[in-house]
Design a protein that fits this description.
alpha/beta; 27% strand; globular; disordered N terminus
Length: 450
């Protein structure tokens, strides 16, 4: 009886200790960490980091993030290049091991075995670890946290900052001089106006404002405040050309403001853009990712517009005037929609061949040497054909098929060869021809000097 009592006491002690441990983890994780803080010991021990790692990079990702998955090979190469000096750890805070496996399995059914997706075997992965989201809150991924060998937070960055050059500097100097990715700050700014009233009882009704780059993530916010009878459009950390495209996109003009959130990012709403600038390269993101932070500081801007609800459908007119005045003043450039003649690639029907879908499960699979669409809307398939459009060469691609229904379509071979694509489209009664057309384009050009 005494032995049984001792065993029970030991069990209760272990349970109590475990409970205290989890309570400690929860309390330690209750507050998010910033640069200079240290990861709680309980969680630091759970991070795989090898014996000699001078730097640990936590790579936050999700199966819904194509950019994250595409970066896996790059992260593997960095891990191999620095071998034991660094440890890259993949962290998925919202999806467990089983969910990750299921999601990849669903995707891989539509892919060639050689192109199957999955987390790299060479990088440790922690899935379903929501406590890390509490420590390092974020709204967008990739989201990287740089830690030294003691678990001290050196930096919180975007995924593109993980380069050989930046990692080498960090290892040598034990610090990181990069733009900090602060999603919490971005959310706080989004919740408030850029223009705050000097007297609380006198809130502004109408204003438009610009500010330069600040250390937060890119964000777009649309808001209708019925209580104050105002609308608000906010673009945080957008590049110059994106401001112009949003302001001049004709696809937004007939959409009520409160429904615009469904239109932004919709592939059907697109405007072709021509840059006719002496310093065109300045407004394009650099190929060398080590130069990206400096480029962002010089070329990303925040714009906010607030006005009366009854004027909400005129937001583009206001924005066009604002950005032409602002960017015209600091860069000497302006934007305008013009109708110009081009020798276009025209996708058209030449006969009534079998193109209508036979039904069945929706399929949209594009691989290196083949693409299959089954029961897919033709407007979604057009996203594939737009790869042959080249506005730098003045060659728009136009859809003049008039197809509005789901179709079945299969292409094989070199998908970058227009000749190969044209030959296969003939069996579906389609062709791509070169013909002259008048096309509306957004022209961003240098202002005339008098």
């Amino acid at each position: 009886m005494r032995k049984e009592l001792i065993v029970i006491i030991i069990i209760l002690f272990v349970i109590s200790a475990k409970g205290q441990q989890f309570e400690k983890i929860y309390s330690e994780n209750f507050k998010s960490l910033n640069v200079g803080d240290t990861v709680p010991e309980t969680l630091w021990r759970s991070i795989p980091k090898g014996n000699r790692a001078k730097l640990v990079i936590l790579d936050f990702w999700s199966t819904y993030c194509g950019t994250c998955i595409e970066a896996f090979p790059k992260m593997e190469k960095l891990q191999y290049y620095f071998r034991g000096d660094i440890q890259i750890v993949l962290i998925n805070t919202t999806e467990t091991d089983s969910v990750v496996k299921q999601r990849f399995s669903q995707t891989n059914r539509k892919r060639d075995r050689s192109k199957w997706l999955g987390t790299p075997a060479s990088l440790p992965a922690l899935n379903g670890r929501i406590e890390f989201h509490t420590l390092f809150p974020y709204t967008t991924v990739p989201h990287h946290v740089w830690l030294n060998s003691d678990g001290k937070v050196l930096s919180i960055t975007n995924g593109y900052n993980a380069t050989i050059e930046n990692i080498e500097k960090c290892i040598k100097q034990n610090k990181v001089s990069l733009i900090q990715k602060n999603d919490v700050l971005a959310n706080e700014v989004v919740q408030n106006n850029l223009i705050q009233p000097a007297i609380p009882i006198m809130p502004p009704v109408y204003y438009s404002a610009f500010m330069s780059f600040f250390q937060a993530s890119e964000n777009l916010k649309l808001k209708i405040d019925s209580a104050k009878s105002v609308f608000k459009l906010s673009l945080y950390n957008y590049d110059v050309t994106s401001h112009f495209k949003i302001a001049f996109e004709p696809g937004f003009s007939n959409i009520p403001f409160e429904k615009l959130k469904y239109a932004f990012g919709n592939s059907e709403k697109r405007i072709r853009t021509l840059l006719e600038l002496r310093d065109e390269d300045r407004f394009q993101p650099p190929i060398d990712l080590n130069l990206m932070d400096d480029w962002k500081h010089r070329n990303l801007f925040t714009y906010e517009l607030q006005g009366m609800i009854q004027n909400s459908n005129d937001w583009q007119t206001y924005m066009q005037q604002d950005i032409n005045r602002f960017f015209g003043g600091i860069f000497g450039i302006e934007g305008k929609v013009e109708t110009r003649k081009f020798t276009c690639l025209v996708l058209k029907r030449i006969n009534e061949s079998a193109l209508v879908s036979t039904g069945g499960i929706l399929e949209n699979s594009i691989q290196e040497h083949g693409a299959v669409w089954r029961n897919e809307k033709f407007r979604n398939i057009m996203n594939f054909f737009y790869r042959f459009e080249n506005m730098k060469l003045g060659r728009p691609l136009l859809d003049e098929t008039g197809i509005t229904y789901p179709v079945d379509l299969k292409l094989v071979g070199d998908l970058t060869s227009l000749k190969n694509i044209k030959e296969q489209l003939l069996q579906y009664g389609l062709d791509i021809t070169e013909e002259e057309r008048a096309v509306e384009v957004l022209v961003i050009k240098d202002k005339k000097r008098f």
